[in-house]
Amino acid sequence: MAERKSMIKLIKQLDWKLIIIVLCIFSFGLLILSSATHANETGNYFQLYKQGSAFGLGVLMIIGILMFDYNFLGKYYKGLYVISLILLGVVLIPGIGAERGGARSWLNLGPLDFQTSELVKLTFILSYAKIVESKKDKLNTLKEIIPVVIYAIPFIGLLFAQPDLGTAIVFCCIIAGMLFTAGLNIKLIKRVIIIAIVSLPIMYMMMASHQKERIEAFLHPDDPTYKGNYQVIQSMIAIGSGGLTGKGLYNGTQNQEGFLPVQESDFIFAVIGEELGVIGMFVVILLYTLFLIRMIILAREAKDFYGTLIVIGVMSMFAYQIIQNIGMTVAVIPVTGVTLPFISYGGSSLLTSLANLGLVLNVGMRRKKINF
């Protein structure tokens, strides 16, 4: 009886503002997805049903995550660390891992393809936050920082081995967000930025051929002969033709006539721009801004620093994905296979986003001390 009362109290402390914001983003996404998948013309709503089913499964995952205090999950950070590395490494084994888009990041599970790095985002955040927690305000020298960085290097290394540069950058953003929150010395941050800039030529040489092609395409945005530029050009045409109010839902020519590639996932923001115009894009960006701000508030209100780091890690992940996806559709960032959270089509991406949302809600619902 006491456990039931305690759970009811915890449920009352759920951050309903954040939940409502996510529901608005997802509902908006389903509406746009109905146009991006051309369901309005074909009458085939299978992808919409699949997306809805993934959302329902994601809600069940959130409920499961909320059942456990995040500090309880944090106790097993060493086990999560090992499991995470195994999941990233197993896809590199010939005959087990499957290659998609030039990266061997997938497990072929019969009718389903599972990208292991999506699950590892969650387990890595839980694990790495525990390491960084003990280093709060102790990141002033290289001697103090190096052990924390070494802990994360195997993850980045395995992602480069796949090679999956886009996901590697996501992990780097998660790491940077946590270290900055833990009090990373500002002078060291400046030095790291300088070193990173100087190292760009070396990093470019280490990239896979398809990654180099994307960089070259980004540097020559008007040249359609570069692989990947066609979709960016079509995206720009779509967004530019939308104007202030757009052409109307289901009336976007670039989308409806099939000129815009990957319009249901990577370039779904271009569909929003073409059919709903600047107003539609503004609404989406506003919702995402409220979404990120709400997580920052929850991070500040967390009952302990571990909870703060978890929320900051998730927030950093989402912030990068949102900026990257929108940026590449308007040709200000090189194209990568990063989807728009809660809007782009894709079961594994949606499930990962909801699972990480579950972590944030877990921290949020326990931000106040409860007397039983």
From TrEMBL:
It comes from Romboutsia ilealis. It is a multi-pass membrane protein. Pfam families: FTSW_RODA_SPOVE (PF01098). The keyword Transcription does not apply. GO terms for cellular component: cell division site; plasma membrane. The keyword Repressor does not apply. One of its GO terms (biological process) is cell division. It comes from the Bacteria. This is Rod shape-determining protein RodA. GO terms for molecular function: lipid-linked peptidoglycan transporter activity. It is found in: Membrane. The chain crosses the membrane at residues 55-73, 80-97, 167-185, 192-209, 267-293, 305-323, 343-364. Its main location: membrane. InterPro entries: FtsW/RodA, RodA/MrdB. Keywords: Cell shape, Membrane, Transmembrane, Transmembrane helix. NCBIfam families: rodA_shape (TIGR02210).
